[in-house]
Design a protein that fits this description.
By secondary structure, the protein is of the alpha/beta class. The chain has a single domain, classed as NAD(P)-binding Rossmann-like Domain (Rossmann fold, 3-Layer(aba) Sandwich). The protein is about 40% helix and about 15% strand. The strands form four sheets. A seven-stranded parallel sheet has the order 3-2-1-4-5-6-11, sandwiched between helices. α2 packs across α4, α4 runs parallel beside α5 and α6 runs parallel beside α8. The chain is globular and about 60 Å long. The structure holds nicotinamide-adenine-dinucleotide (NAD) and thymidine-5'-diphosphate. The site of nicotinamide-adenine-dinucleotide (NAD) has 30 residues, from α1, α4 and β5.
């Protein structure tokens, strides 16, 4: 008999799959049901190491379809149930090309999930959100949990809408939801449309590294394992109705990261290619994560100096994974975004 059941949505994506591996290591007695639509970003290969475990099951389904959410809840059985909600359209550049899928999954899908989880009597619901809901910072200051929400991209606007629906479910219905807002993650299994794996993939093949604008946009980078641990800590001890910021206290301009990657890969800086800037590009994100540290004792364990080389080594060891995810639909997206 499993200790408890956790329904994970979006568990075949980057952070969701890392989270499932994290639970398998740190909470092996928990049963995990993974509901994922397997969009371009979802990859069952990411879950090879857990797929044969008795404590893991996969439901292929879409959170925007009521019947799929109902099937996943049924697969969870009748016992106590907790939910961690990762499923989302997650890439800013794609949201600029087309915003509607972001509203469908991130907004409509989240409401469908909330309604059914409330009817089911879910005991805890962790909504995984992003620091991008706070908008953009100037050269100084940090986002706290009380920073006004001011999203600037269709992606961050749809995540903000989902955060507000989660907030409303708590305030109106007493639904036991907690929201986390994390900074940029890096690590294994990240789809190579995001900065770090894209640059590793291109540099490894001596292809140009497309730098948006002046390359001086700043992000606060957190190793994905640290994010997964923070989510587990919030699942186990976070207060319902609260928001917890999660961050790495690890700010870097994009160009500096790209230079670090080139140096580690032994590739020339001449691969750096300045391209047209992202429209509405947020200048800087930086998280004040003192609340989660104070209340739940979480802080990041990995420094960039250790975890960036580890990440590069992972991608170098996963040549076939990289080749497979960069075929087909990826190529179409890449040509549309960067020009063939
Ligand atoms: P991802 O794009 O790698 O994975 C998303 C997963 O959700 C995929 O497996 C996909 O198949 C699934 N999915 C998409 N639409 C679905 C639908 N309608 N029904 C069911 N499944 C669906 O995303 P990620 O980077 O792992 O991000 C996970 C969550 O964390 C997102 O909610 C994102 O907003 C948030 N987040 C990400 C970061 C980051 O740096 N990547 C930072 C902070 C917060
Ligand atoms: P990204 O990984 O898309 O995350 P987000 O936009 O959610 O922070 O991008 C991180 C930063 O890298 C962001 O400032 C945009 C920049 N960037 C580039 O300069 N070139 C690229 O090809 C990509 C994908 C991102």
């Amino acid at each position: 008999m499993a200790e408890k059941t956790v329904l994970v949505t979006g568990g075949a994506g980057f952070i969701g799959s890392n989270f499932i591996h994290h639970l398998a290591e740190t909470r092996p007695g928990w049963r995990v049901v993974n509901l994922d639509a397997l969009t371009y970003a979802g990859n069952p290969e990411n879950l090879r190491a857990v797929e044969d475990k008795d404590t893991y099951s996969f439901v292929h389904g879409d959170i925007t379809k009521e019947e799929d959410v109902a099937s996943a809840l049924e697969a969870c059985g009748d016992g106590p149930l907790e939910v961690v909600h990762f499923a989302a359209e997650s890439h800013v550049d794609r949201s600029i090309l087309s915003g509607l899928p972001f509203v469908q999954t991130n907004v409509v899908g989240t409401q469908i999930l909330l309604d059914q989880c409330r009817a089911r009597g879910v005991e805890r619901f962790v909504h995984v959100s992003t620091d991008e809901v706070y908008g953009s910072l100037g050269d100084t200051g940090y986002f706290t949990e009380t920073t006004p929400l001011a999203p600037n991209s269709p992606y961050s606007a749809s995540k903000t809408a989902s955060d507000l629906l989660v907030r409303a479910a708590f305030h109106t219905h007493g639904f036991p939801a907690v929201t986390t807002r994390c900074s940029n993650n890096y690590g294994p299994y990240q789809f190579p449309e995001k900065l770090i794996p894209l640059m590793i993939a291109n540099a490894s093949e001596d292809k140009p590294l497309p730098v948006y604008g002046d390359g001086l946009y700043v992000r606060d980078w957190l190793y994905v394992e640290d994010h997964c641990e923070a989510i587990r800590v919030v699942l186990e001890g976070g207060r319902a109705g609260e928001v917890y910021n999660i961050g790495g206290n690890n700010e870097y301009p994009n160009l500096e990261i790209i230079r670090m990657l080139l140096a580690a890969l032994g590739k020339p800086e001449s691969l750096i290619t300045y391209v047209k800037d992202r429209p509405g590009h947020d200048r800087r994100y930086a998280i004040d994560a003192s609340k989660i540290q104070r209340e739940l004792g979480w802080q990041p364990r990995h420094t960039f100096e250790v975890a960036l080389p580890k990440t590069i080594a992972w991608y170098q060891s996963q040549v076939e994974w990289m080749q497979r995810v960069r075929s087909g639909a990826y190529r179409e997206y890449y040509d549309r975004q960067y020009g063939s």
